[in-house]
Amino acid sequence: MASRALILFAHGARSAGWAEPFERLRDMTAARVDDCEVSLAFLELMAPSLPDEVAAMAARGITRISIVPVFLGLGGHLQRDLPALVERLRTQHPQLSIDVAGPVGEDAGVLAAMADYCVTSLS
Amino acid sequence: MASRALILFAHGARSAGWAEPFERLRDMTAARVDDCEVSLAFLELMAPSLPDEVAAMAARGITRISIVPVFLGLGGHLQRDLPALVERLRTQHPQLSIDVAGPVGEDAGVLAAMADYCVTSLS
């Protein structure tokens, strides 16, 4: 069993269909990594929450968790809500190593792909 | 002067820094298109709003506007708010041609770039 996990952390929304590209992203990522669980967790409106997902992982022996915020920009959710959640999780699960990446939307490769899409939308 | 424009439509947030990757995306896209203005407009919390941006464009002779939603998923904002805004804009500016693309986050190239970022975050 993997002892490592990657959690794609997304906002959540009322429309069930909203999560569809995030589910695709989870599956695409999972297909490319070995010995690492890949799952989704949400800030609000959708399940599982980040604390529930981390607790379930800790209970089954995961020791190292990387969180990638699937957000476009660095707003209050990533500047305040996520750090507060992670601080509580580190206190609750001191045996876990938890690291947090920057938001996907600030990655140069993601921005380049979005620019490609914008340019293509004009043709 | 360009008669065509591309509007990158984003959610908006309270943190001024949130818009930074969207501004980079606007500049990267603008550098790659000819005879087309590229600008940002926001649903809420940031200016300009989409109606204000479209009205300003119409006033200076833009005749054709493409809107690209810089959103990750297709939630209520894109299923209800944006179509309602666009319907009003078409009524208010009947001389304008306005088309709306799918959200950037559902594009295969953008998803692939996000998966690359997720995989890289593990190393």
UniProtKB/TrEMBL annotation, chains A, B:
Q: Which CDD domains match?
A: CbiX_SirB_N
* Gene3D superfamilies per record: 3.40.50.1400
Q: Which UniProt keywords apply?
A: Lyase, Metal-binding
Q: SUPFAM superfamilies annotated for this entry? A: Chelatase
Top-level taxonomic group: Bacteria
Question: Mind telling me which InterPro entries this protein's record contains?
Answer: CbiX-like, Sirohydro_Cobaltochel/CbiX
Q: Which Pfam families match?
A: CbiX (PF01903)
- Stored PANTHER family: SIROHYDROCHLORIN FERROCHELATASE, CHLOROPLASTIC (PTHR33542)
Can you name this protein?
CbiX/SirB N-terminal domain-containing protein
Which source organism does the UniProt entry give? Massilia terrae
